[in-house]
Amino acid sequence: MNAIATTTDVLIIGAGPTGLTLACELARRGVGFRLLERSATPSTASRAKTIQPRTLEVADDLGIVDRVLAQGKVNIPTRRYDHARVISEAVELADGTPTPEAPYPPVWLSQPKFERILRDRLAELGGTIHWGSEVTGLQHDGDTVTATVETATGSHTVRARYVVGADGGRSTVRALAGIELRGVSLTDQRWHLGDVRVTGLSRDCQHLWTSKEDGLLSLFPLPGTDLWQFQASIPTDEAEPEAPSLELFRRIFAARAAVPGVGIQDAEWLSLYRINVVLADHYRTGRILLAGDAAHIHSPAGGQGMNTGIQDAYNLGWKLAALLDGADPALLDTYEHERRPVARAVLDDSTARLGQVMRATSANDGTSAQRGLTDEHTTGLRVAYHDSALTHGPGAGGRAPDAPCTDADTGRPVRLFDLQRGPHWTLLSFGTAAVPQTPSGLRTFRVTTDPDATGPATVIDTDGHAHHAYQSTGDELVLIRPDGYIAARRPAADLPAVLALFSTNGL
Ligand SMILES: Cc1cc2nc3c(=O)[nH]c(=O)nc-3n(C[C@H](O)[C@H](O)[C@H](O)COP(=O)(O)OP(=O)(O)OC[C@H]3O[C@@H](n4cnc5c(N)ncnc54)[C@H](O)[C@@H]3O)c2cc1C
């Protein structure tokens, strides 16, 4: 083995959506990190395909939402069949109408496309991915952790102040850190999943066959590709499912769908997917942390797996950066405290949704099999950290909503999200008080309904959306964390207390 080759502040293990989001978060804050990925090249298998509204808000903050919206699709309708006969066609999934407070609908885009956007952003931010680098050992030594890394050129070591295992469901980091994973395998839930090319089907909709006898078959057109995601439930009485193959997928299609003139041409990815519902006991031991599938795995029903991992990284990134910059070490405890209950809720919710799909399928009720798969609970917009140590006072802990306003100086439209975009904290001063002086790292803006207001850092709430979204009536300060959650709401006169909260946690 070589001598110590590299030292860094944060070692990120795994360049899936979770690791890539964390890397972007650290890169834009100028934090030193090393991102290691076992595979030699990116995965091309579709897997997750729903980008939920809250993840689009993260993408907005990272400066990539336009690319996601340009490449993805919204409101893809579902065409339901009884074998070759079309029964109905309607938008049954992810019908999210944007509002001034929540500007993004759920977007359909496959995981490799989203990962590609994250990788491009990371490169723009100056970050690098070390492909073909597998972590096989971790050793805590006082204030650092030393990782053993296997590459094509041999064994190396990397010493880091913090290590984040974003290395997926079979996490090596989790095992090396001795963190237990608890939960169940849904042994009757097995699916054939793959990416195939199909001729003869319209790409304007998802095609869905449900029947009591055969179960569920779905063909979903993956935006920006010529591929379809193939999903077929495996009958519960099939003791050991057949290994996935193109020939098997064709046979399933012929038995359950058999639409004349439609055929599966070839396949890019074929898999057999067993559903586990498991959660890590802890998200942290010492200087080693877990995020994404390494910490929680669940059913894909509701499309929250990838999204939950991205939100983990978004929660963790600014905290690691603040800690490395001298913030109170207790800040890091809030990561598990805030995020583990979110994963617990997603596990329960996605299991319930899967049960509903399967019950509706066996009752030959194709409409219910789809409806309710996505709703306001799956958007991620309701996640809140009310009992966090970072939440102060009534009305705090929830997501900081967006609202369209007007820039008082330029007269141009400006959104509250425009003010929050970037690695800083944000202080919104609602009402008549002048914009207070605040330290760097905290950007302050006055939000007023006075149409004649002028001055820098002042926005006019032209249509009252901001006051409505924040339910603000008097002179009030709203302190917003870098990840877009409200840390405190206080009367304008309490500015010193608000600044004290910021300097404990923000610096
Ligand atoms: C078959 C399948 C179907 C799915 N369908 C859906 C769906 O429909 N909807 C949905 O929301 N979610 C779905 N998911 C889940 C979704 O893909 C995951 O939630 C998401 O990929 C989690 O991202 P992650 O970055 O945490 O982990 P991963 O995407 O698993 O990334 C982990 C990365 O770490 C790397 N790695 C692992 N070990 C090491 C090591 N020792 N050293 C270095 N690198 C390492 C891996 O190569 C991998 O690139 C599906 C998953 C699978 C497997």
From TrEMBL:
Keywords: FAD, Flavoprotein, Monooxygenase, Oxidoreductase
CC cofactor: FAD
Alphabetical list of Gene3D superfamilies matching this protein: 3.30.70.2450, 3.40.30.120, FAD/NAD(P)-binding domain
Example GO molecular function: monooxygenase activity
Pfam families listed in its UniProt record: FAD_binding_3, Rng_hyd_C
Domain FAD-binding: start-end pairs: 8-349
Signal peptide: none
InterPro entries found in the cross-reference section: FAD-bd, FAD/NAD-bd_sf, RIFMO-like, Thioredoxin-like_sf
Stated family: Belongs to the PheA/TfdB FAD monooxygenase family.
PANTHER family noted in UniProt: BINDING MONOOXYGENASE, PUTATIVE (JCVI)-RELATED, TRK SYSTEM POTASSIUM UPTAKE PROTEIN
Name listed for the protein in its UniProt record: FAD-dependent monooxygenase
